[in-house]
Amino acid sequence: MIEFRNIHKSFEEKVVLDGVSGVLERGKCNLLIGASGTGKSVLLKCIVGLIPTDQGEVLFDNRDFTLADRDLKTDIRREIGMLFQSGALFDSKTVEQNVMFPLDILTKMSKEEKLERANIVLKRVGLENTNKKMPSEISGGMKKRVGIARAIVNEDVKYLFCDEPNSGLDPQTSILIDDLIKEITDELQITTTVVTHDMNSVLGIGDKIMFLFKGKKVWEGNKDEIMDSGVKEFDDFVFANKVMNKMRHG
Amino acid sequence: MRGIGQYFIFLGSLFVNRETVSTYVKLIIDECILIGWKSIFIVVIISSFIGAVSTVQTAYNLVSPLIDRYVISLIVRDMTLLELAPTITALVFAGKVGSNIASGLGTMRITEQIDALEVMGINASSYLVLPKIIASMLMYPLLVILAAFLSIYGGYLAGVLTGVTTPYEYIYGIRADFNEYSVSFALTKAVVFAFLISSISAYKGYFTKGGALEVGIASTNAVTNSCIAVLLADYLLAQLLL
Fold first, then answer.
1. What string of pLDDT tens digits covers the 242 residues of chain B?
2. Which residue in the set A45, A76, A84 is minimally distant from B116, CB to CB?
3. H/E element holding A205?
4. Which one of A77, A147, B10, B37 is most buried, by most CB atoms within 10 A?
5. Is A140 on the interface with B (CB under 8 A)?
6. Which residues form the domain of A75?
7. At CB < 8 Å, which residues of chain B contact A?
8. Is A211 part of a structural domain of the chain?
9. Best residue of A58, A80, A82, A193 to probe chain B, by most B CBs closer than 10 Å
């Protein structure tokens, strides 16, 4: 479980996060949603420590990440897997080397053990025969799957973060990636956090949903409660989608 | 001033929360190949021609019959050791290696590869930059030695083939009044220049923000700032050490 309390973040004069709090639950897909520029990705990066917060606390299973010393921070980070919007695969390494990379750095496993573990996770994401390919040789959807494989390859991973996992993907591949994230969350019982503005993802995997608007959390619920949130900003966001609007009006 | 302060903080960050020594050894070897081995061709071309041109132009300017022709190679030798080999090669090194370091790190930054390392609990600046700086400081002095040798040899070929000097005169001039300290000075300059070029370029690339356009700007700034730093350091070292 991850808890964040009263997160504030500004870039010069612009307030991006204005006292956001919430709990990301273990074994669930926790979605941070909102329109572009509402601070979803900044909140995610504040939680994982890529952007320092101006104020507020982030607790990973009651361990305060914001006040942690370097060793504790490193320990917590080694329990984090992250799928980036662009995939963020290392260009100079093959798919196999990308997936093995966290094991090279974080563990003392032998090369054979690392290879075996990499093959297990690559098989899990449906990429058995791509070990020797370079990132430039695979499609966007495959890059995302390699990113997921790299994020979960370390068996210590307890927290999975996905920043817009569907961006740039066709609808079918998007569903495939969503399903994969959901299945992995259920299998490993990890705390998964997904930043998205894709309503298909919200309806598909949203065990817990937090809606951000102008740097504040204005609604929280699950996918079954979307239709009658009673929050205007949230309704405007959800029903801007024509399909959702049709569903609402029968 | 803020940029200079940030540069020194960046340098300090290279030495905290490091990975294991064996990790760095492998990375340093890879960088030595990239930085050193792959720069040999351009260094060979430039230093050979600089030596040849220096010989021909020195001969052209020494018109007095009172000056022995061995002075041509003596001048070429000192020019090469004191300035041309370490400094001109440094400017070429900044253009080739500096831009490569800045654009490589800049691309890693904008494609979130550096963030990916940080999230894994790796000190990305130390992991990515320290091997580049160490490899530069190891390889650049070797390139300077090669450049000095080829420059003097290029001068020999040009001098002998054009008839402005004889092999005996050229070799006599190379040996005449030789001060070994020139070599130490050239190598000291090489180490300092390598550090400046690699660290400034890495700093410029590491803090790139934006997209492809900004990577290009970072790369250009890396070369420009490295060249200015090299020339400033060149003057300071000459004042301090000669």
1. 788 899 999 898 888 877 788 889 999 999 999 999 999 999 999 999 999 999 999 988 887 788 888 899 999 999 999 999 999 999 999 999 999 999 999 999 999 999 999 888 888 999 999 999 999 999 999 999 999 999 999 999 999 999 888 999 999 999 998 889 999 999 999 999 999 999 999 999 999 998 999 999 999 999 999 999 999 999 999 999 88
2. A84
3. helix A199-205
4. A147
5. no
6. 1-79+158-170+189-250
7. 16-17, 19, 23, 107-108, 111-113, 115-116, 118-122
8. yes
9. A82
